[in-house]
Amino acid sequence: MYDSIKLSPAEHILSMSTDGDVIGMMSELTRSRRLSSVVRQLNEAVLDGGQPERDQAIAALTRMGMWLD
Predict the structure, then answer these.
(1) Mean pLDDT of successive 10-residue stretches along the chain, which has 69 residues
(2) What are phi and psi of 5, to 5 degrees?
(3) How many structural domains does the chain have?
(4) Which domain holds residue 58?
């Protein structure tokens, strides 16, 4: 289902309408062993991206429950 995503991982996560959608995506990615690659991409954006990309990645990680301030 998530093989055809055209947006960046952060944009896709932030465009989801409910937290249930985010949890469903995370469950599916965990089952298919691809969650770590999505988290890695988001972490790379935080470390190496420009300010807008970094802010989006932090917001996405926060929505996923993987970022603490």
Answers:
(1) 71 95 96 96 97 98 94
(2) -70, 130
(3) 1
(4) 30-69
